[in-house]
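Risk register update: the risk of archive-format incompatibility is retired. Evidence:
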Amino acid sequence: MSVPRVVTRPLSGNPLADAAIAGTAPIGWYERVPRDAEAWRARIQSVRSEFGDDWLKKLSPAFEATGKAKERLEAAAGRGVVVTTGQQPGLFGGPVYTLSKALSALAFADSLEEASGIPVAPVFWAATDDTDFREASSTVVSVPGGAQLLRFDHPERLGLPMAAMPLGEVSVQLEALKHAAGSVIDRTPIDLLERFYTSGETVGSAYVSFLRALFAPLGIAVIDASHFATREAARPIVTKALERASEIADALRARNQDLELAGFAPQVQDVPGLSLVFSSSSGSRKRVPIKSAARQASSGDLGPNVLLRPVVERAILPTASYIGGPAEIAYFAQIGPIAETLGVAQPLILQRWSCVIIEPHVEKILEELDLVPEDFRDPHEVEARVARARLPKRVIEELNATRATLNDRLDALSGAVAEERAPVGPAVTGGLRANLLRRLDRFERRLIAAAKRQHADIMHEIATARGSLYPFGKPQERSLNFVPLLARYGVALKEAMLAEAREHARRLAGGRVQSSRSVDPPVSARGRP
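Archived output:
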């Protein structure tokens, strides 16, 4: 079977993240990135010196690591560090970037270990304390003719963390995913879904169990953010965040003002009067008000919000670096004042590896129609362009000539009306122009619509390619479920992705950070960029 082409893409889409990656963000907003192997070795030793030998013992129940993942964790616990990444639960494992994030952490951990000679373990932080049921309850698969949304509804009240949200019955959705996978060469990921996505699980527990079983053979450990061991390890720093909630709010407000003065919008908006700590004591997850923060510091069910989480993670894990996407990089600019107020180390973030996976049947469509993946960003442009190209040449020529002639004659008419002081104003001739050109445009749209119907087979191919590359108008990596891809191509796809991720990791470990502002060569339909 042919192997998909995996193409590395620049990570961009957020001005503040772009500035951070390019190294142009103001000094102090981000932890300084080591520039070479020696600097990384010094950082690793510094991070490791902050931790005793018992951090893994405390957190071991939250990992439940096995196999190669356990081996790497135990080696790091002895004299090394970890590289982390993470994501909130997504149905059936979530989109491609769940996998590309994990492989980014693995590749970078390997690069650091090779460069420093110190054990480095990759860790995936499963944010099961997240309450975004809408994201956790849906996923997208590609099928012939487009994309299919798989979603399940649940009668439970919203606001529950995904660790407590019952999964319910998702067998219909799982059957649809299996059908979308088609002919497979590796049933492992599907077998794992069938094993863990059952009605007895929660949304969070199914996600964690699936990722652990999938990632352990690669050496990637998965930590459950909602596990009692994780929450107990985080308790001191979370409690301190409540005790100093007012100071943190002032420091964060000042940083947000600095961001705005520099022309950036804070990624995480300030909510006046609320701390950065959640309480789940009422059954749902709610931010603790600052005015009652001191009273709730002894509460037994507390957790960090999105800005406090990286600080907590850095405090309980010897983290050399977090590997994140544009939104995460952007909100890390707000984290420094929080860490400083709490008297703990500021976490370091590096950009994750990003990719697009071009399957062989999609590659063939691109070649036949002379398209590239970026053409599908616009939801309708490709169909219109292809359909227009299939109209008779003479019709297009006459249409263009008619439009040019019409514009010329309307210019002459407008000039005559003005020169001869006709009893109408320019608004009237302007309205006539708009009306006539609108009618001509409508005629062209009807021609194109008819061509689309005439070439329905080509439109079906375009829809198939769009369903793989930009399903429902979103980039593949952010929406398309990765399980059917792994099932169809097996180890070959993982190896292709990891090879690209390793190139990215080597740049990071060597201080050669790829700027998201750089312009990559276009992704050719016929060869690698």
